[in-house]
């Protein structure tokens, strides 16, 4: 059965979630892009608040595919004490080289690294083998352009099933996210991804930059159960 991830954008939102903690509490700033980063100070405060009651993850921002830039951001974010550091892999002619150059940092970081691909950017799933070789713990698929279209508007259940199987064949964690709705939960659970990730459906007016609402979080938790 798939577990679930909820993204928060502040310490205040993390406090709201305390009565209904997800399996992974994710931290990002949705006003700064698909994987906008919160400050190291804020992430550290949230990790301390959660105090191991659930796992935590944090994004490092929508960064250029330059290994030195990404490595520096990963090392800094890992200092917060999160369980996972998440990095977005955007289309770039330098992408494969970048991943290979990240290998040393990923393998010596001490904090598992999750890579995020984007369904609306037509990723090549052959990259999963390279990610495994480079030490990444898992692979998620998300949407880069936040315009109300969900993951299922870009990839069919068959495509998502292929993605999940490709990742799990490499014994890596697999996650699905991208403006997921409650109605998406049941069909996506049949794919047996490790995690389903949520943000917009948890927020007022289903707008990812709006404030998270406890009653909406409870609805998602009930649907997951």
Strand order of the largest sheet: 1-2-3-4-5-6-7-8
Number of E-type strands: 8
Distance between the terminal alpha carbons, to the nearest Å? 9 Å
State the secondary-structure class.
Answer: alpha/beta
Query: Looking at this structure, what is the CATH superfamily?
Result: Aldolase class I
Rg, alpha carbons: 16 Å
Q: Under the CATH scheme, which class?
A: Alpha Beta
Return the average pLDDT rounded to an integer: 96
Question: In percent, how much strand structure appears in the residues?
Answer: 15-25%
What would you note in describing this structure?
The protein starts with a strand and ends with a helix. It has 225 residues and is an alpha/beta fold. The longest helix is centred in the middle third of the chain and has 14 residues, at 95-108. An eight-stranded parallel beta barrel has the order 1-2-3-4-5-6-7-8, surrounded by seven helices. Helix 3 runs parallel beside helix 4 and helix 8 (182-189) packs parallel to helix 9 (214-224). The protein is 39% helix and 17% strand.
Map the helices and strands:
Blueprint: E1 3-8, H1 11-17, E2 24-27, H2 40-50, E3 55-59, H3 67-78, E4 84-88, H4 95-108, E5 113-118, H5 127-133, E6 138-142, H6 151-154, H7 157-169, E7 173-176, H8 182-189, E8 195-198, H9 214-224
Parallel strand pairs: 1-2, 1-8, 2-3, 3-4, 4-5, 5-6, 6-7, 7-8
């Amino acid at each position: 059965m798939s577990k679930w991830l909820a993204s928060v954008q502040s310490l205040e939102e993390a406090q709201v979630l305390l009565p209904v903690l997800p399996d992974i509490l994710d931290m990002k700033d949705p006003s700064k892009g698909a994987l906008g980063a919160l400050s190291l100070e804020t992430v550290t405060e949230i990790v301390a608040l959660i105090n191991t009651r659930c796992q935590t993850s944090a994004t490092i921002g929508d960064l250029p595919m330059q290994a030195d830039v990404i490595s520096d951001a990963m090392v800094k974010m890992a200092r917060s004490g999160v369980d996972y550091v998440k990095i977005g892999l955007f289309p770039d002619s330098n992408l494969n080289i970048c991943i290979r150059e990240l290998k040393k940092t990923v393998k010596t970081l001490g904090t598992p690294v999750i890579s995020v691909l984007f369904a609306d950017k037509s990723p090549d799933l052959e990259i999963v083998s390279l990610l495994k070789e480079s030490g990444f713990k898992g692979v998620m698929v998300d949407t880069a352009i936040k315009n109300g279209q969900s993951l299922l508007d870009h990839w069919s259940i068959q495509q998502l099933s292929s993605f999940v199987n490709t990742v799990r064949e490499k014994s890596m964690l697999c996650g699905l996210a991208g403006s997921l709705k409650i109605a998406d939960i049941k069909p996506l659970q049949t794919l047996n991804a490790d995690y389903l990730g949520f943000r917009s459906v948890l927020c007022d007016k289903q707008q990812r930059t709006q404030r998270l609402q406890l009653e909406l979080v409870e609805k998602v938790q009930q649907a997951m159960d």
